[in-house]
Design brief:
The protein contains nine helices and no strands. The protein is mostly helical and 175 residues long. The protein folds into two domains: 75 residues, RNA polymerase sigma factor, region 2, helix turn helix motif (Rna Polymerase Sigma Factor, Chain: A, Orthogonal Bundle); 84 residues, Arc Repressor Mutant, subunit A. It starts with a helix and ends in a 5-residue tail after the last helix.
């Protein structure tokens, strides 16, 4: 039986981060609560195997797994990645000063940004939230998602490009 007090002391401080990630991935508070509950149950079940000091990273690695399992059971369409996104037609980071979409992202209100993030495919939404909101490093995101750092960078670049395009289009500016 895992040490409940140690589990709580290491994981409960990260409850808000776990909920925040689940909320962004499910796009719904009630669904996020269900996912976080499942993630904490999984974490508790496997806590005896936890070795290390980074309980936040460990827990945040469990949340997306619980989330994607939940999405697969309840909303499998959310897991699709649009392979047809043409990144060459989208502005890159170097052009962001002259890019209307990048300016829109910088000046957009929180509701529009939230809606744009929620519209991203789940894999892109996950890395954008982990990097831009939870402020994890690329290496930490790779550990959380179980993907190579190169994949994290690629998904983050595509996610950011999709955000710029979505925010630019919402303002009626060319992307």
């Amino acid at each position: 039986m895992p040490d409940r007090s140690r589990f709580e002391s290491l994981t409960l401080p990260h409850l808000d981060a776990a909920f925040n990630l689940a909320r962004w991935l499910t796009r719904n508070d009630d669904d996020a609560q269900d996912v976080v509950q499942e993630a904490y149950l999984r974490a508790f079940r496997f806590f005896a195997g936890f070795r290390g000091e980074d309980a936040r990273g460990w827990l945040l690695a469990i949340v997306p797994n619980a989330c994607f399992d939940w999405l697969a059971r309840n909303r499998s369409d959310d897991l699709a990645i649009d392979a047809d996104v043409d990144l060459d037609r989208l502005p890159n980071e170097a052009d962001s000063r002259d890019d209307p979409a990048a300016r829109a992202l910088a000046g957009a209100d929180a509701t529009r940004v939230q809606q744009a993030i929620e519209a991203l495919p789940a894999a892109f939404r996950e890395v954008v939230v982990l990097r831009e909101i939870e402020e994890l490093s690329y290496q930490e995101i790779a550990a959380v998602t179980g993907t190579p750092v190169g994949t994290v960078r690629s998904r983050l670049a595509r996610g950011r490009a999709l955000l710029r395009r979505a925010l630019g289009q919402r303002q009626g500016e060319p992307s």
